[in-house]
Design a protein that fits this description.
The protein is built from nine helices and five strands, in the order βαβαβαβαβααααα. By secondary structure, it is an alpha/beta fold.
Length: 195
């Protein structure tokens, strides 16, 4: 590993004006990517970044690489990982949420090319809420000690907010519907090599 270049943060307007010269890597889940992404963005979910290191390194040597996600948290983590491997990248401030809020276009693949799904944030809210309700119901109906399920979820949410990480999102991201098909990831890596 070489010296770690510091990741750069681009605002939405900066990224929009430079979009034609940037290689954009979207590190969200395939379902999130399919719901709308920056024009020309390639989908390499954050947990597949290590597999894509050679291709991303080559792309960074040819030009600037912009890493995006929904809000900027996952792309910052990806940029730190890439920097630890000597790959200079930039992240989009506020992610695709900020991009869309500024009125910039999002590309959505044709319906036949997508898998329907919820964003990872929505999945986390649903799972956490379900577990809290389950813990409350079991605590009232079965045994009061089962209220600890709800307390554990509440503690996890506080920890998640304080550290800007989310263990539940990482676990949910490993579910089959949130993983890219092997052929899709191989095609993305080939497209990245050929840019």
């Amino acid at each position: 590993m070489t010296n770690s270049p510091a990741p750069v943060t681009l605002g939405t307007d900066q990224a929009r004006t430079r979009l034609h010269e940037l290689t954009v890597i979207d590190v969200r889940t395939p379902a999130e990517y399919a719901s709308g992404h920056l024009p020309g963005a390639l989908n390499i979910p954050v947990d597949h970044i290590r597999r894509a290191l050679p291709e991303i390194r080559d792309a960074a040597e040819r030009g600037d690489v912009l890493v995006v996600c929904a809000s900027g948290a996952r792309s910052e983590n990806a940029c730190r990982l890439l920097a630890a491997h000597g790959i200079a990248t930039a992240t989009l401030a506020g992610g695709t949420g900020a991009w869309a809020a500024e009125g910039h276009d999002l590309h959505t693949p044709a319906a036949c090319d997508t898998r329907a799904g919820w964003s990872i944030e929505r999945q986390v809210r649903f799972t956490a809420g379900t577990m809290v309700l389950l813990g409350l119901a079991l605590g009232l109906l079965v045994h009061p000690a089962l209220l600890l399920i709800s307390a554990g979820i509440a503690g996890g949410l506080v920890f998640s907010a304080l550290t800007n990480t989310c263990g539940m999102a990482v676990m949910l991201g490993k579910l089959p519907h949130n993983r890219p098909r092997a052929a899709d990831l191989d095609a993305t890596l080939a497209a990245l090599r050929n840019r």
